[in-house]
Amino acid sequence: MEDKSRKVIKSIAMITQISVSMMVPIFLCAALGVWLNRLFNTQACFLVLLFIGIGASFRNLYILTKSFYSADMKKEHDRLKYIQDLKDYSINCPREAQEPGGIEKTGRYPGNKGQKGL
Q1: Dist. CA 21–CA 16, nearest whole Å
Q2: pLDDT at residue 114 in the model
């Protein structure tokens, strides 16, 4: 139960961090654009800085989500590598891969024909 609640808290913290990391660059660049527009009596500074803020927020989003999912991606990569190694082993050593312990069923007890008459 503690593991699930820890995951929920971690997810809520991640959502909060993403939202703050997206909003702060947009609002700061927009505020700076409004201030520069009033200072120089232009209209272009706001739009240019707004697009820069949007670009910075998406860059932050990419960096945060990449670090958040890197452990899961590593586990998935390791699992796929393990499966590929098993496939390669069965292709390179088919006889040993089919029989447990690497011994053929017919070669284990050659003289034993089984119990008859039961």
Answers
A1: 8
A2: 53
